[in-house]
Amino acid sequence: MDKGKGNEGANAGTFPPGRARAPPVVLITTVLPFLVMAAIALAPLELDNAVKYMLAVLACISLLWTLGSLPLAVTALLVPILLTLFGLTSASGALLPFGDPVAFLIVGGLFIAEAFKASGLDRRIAFIMVSAAGGDIRKTFLALMAVSAFLSMWISNTATVALLVPVVLTMAGKAGGNDRKITRLFLIGACIATAFGSMSTMIGTPVNAITSGLLAQAVPWTFLDWFKAGAVVSIVLLAFAYIVLPKVLPVRSKTIDIVPIRGELSAMGALTAREKKVLAVFLPTIAVWIFGADIAAATGLPAGFLNAAVIALLAAFLLLLIKAMEWSEARRIDWDIYLIIGAGLALGEALESTGAAAWIASQVDAAAGGLSLLALMMVMGALSVLVTTVLSNTATVAILVPIVISVSAAMGLEPQAPVLVTAFCASISLITPVGTPSITIAYNTGMIGRAELARTGLVVTLPAMLIVVLLVYAMASMGWI
Q1: C-alpha–C-alpha distance, residues 432 and 450, integer Å
Q2: CA separation, residue 353 to residues 209, 216, 414, 421 (Å)
Q3: Backbone angles phi, psi at 257, to 5 degrees
Q4: Which of 190, 215, 276, 438 has the most CB atoms in a 10 Å sphere around its CB?
Q5: For residue range 269-280, what is the model confidence (pLDDT) as tens digits?
Q6: Which residues contact 357 (CB under 8 A, 6 or more apart)?
Q7: What is the pLDDT, as a whole number, of residue 5?
Q8: More confident call, 333 vs 79
Q9: CA 422 to CA 393: how far, in whole Å?
């Protein structure tokens, strides 16, 4: 939760060590989006004013997110301001999406993520998994991918990688002259595993939350609906990465010294009372998120009470009530994710309500000449991967998903499959350090070069995109989604 999830867009404006933007560049990249917005708004286009103004706002926000001169959360604050400035919606209409149930689902997820971190439960899980591998390189690599994927289902991809970087560096430091190759394999493997693992749940990343919020406005959509599709895609992609990465990033060593990791695990001792409290809240929360509708039907409880967002807030309340975490720790939560999700939903709703999304969809439909469902999914998957190489994945889905929903409607297709492909592919663009902040963290260790990252990213991303499209198409054909 990219739990905080995420912070999947929090990397805007992040650059490799030693490089910073000169003030004139920052000024240009900040002013240019507003000049483009003004040019579009004032241009004598043969469009309804609402559509034209919405396209102007979309261009401005997209450029700000792309150029990264401002943090994503700062740009997010601008969305309701511009929507009301151009008269595209009322103040209440612009701010209402910030209170969407999906936003509060993420808020609850943020509390769970912080509780994992504050209690040390995340570190314990990582140390247990790595220690269980017994020092075998392939088993250790599998353990790292497994723990990365599991943690990223519930806590931030960024936080997961940040947690595992010192673990990886500690192990690699005991590998002699082969330590850089092992570090490179483990770091990239952890990053890719978090990207693939986070696809499993609606709270896995802000990408999933924004997509779910927008999709729920078009069709009935629940936590379980996402999980049924996301878990399948996640497992297949993880298996693919486990097979491919050691071939792309080979290491000669067969074993590694994990005594330091076992030492840290031993020093942690038995499960603390605090860790037990976190598990006591976390495990039932997962069960209700998945089986909430069945539980409501069996117990007679109001279905609204067992809504995923309400349960997330209940989990947050219980964590604080039983002292599994303190409010001072909750204040450290990455709250900018809430703003980013709200802005993404507001932008999506405005695109729909003004007719801008429908206009863009008509242009796409005219150019596409009536694509089949599979062809549309391939196009959107490729576009999502391409856009995310230069734009954060959070911003990518905020812009593309409303358009995909409108394109689907224009073509007489159900939106679930093409929307899911768009979202999943936004999370697998691993070619540059820009699209996902977890990759940025690994890159900033200095152990991975741009060429290595690009080569590995291409080898993984392109086949993964095809796998996503085919899997989602198969599930749609079988009525699974």
Answers
A1: 7
A2: 20, 15, 19, 24
A3: -80, 115
A4: 438
A5: 999 999 999 999
A6: 348, 351, 402, 403, 405, 406
A7: 42
A8: 79
A9: 10
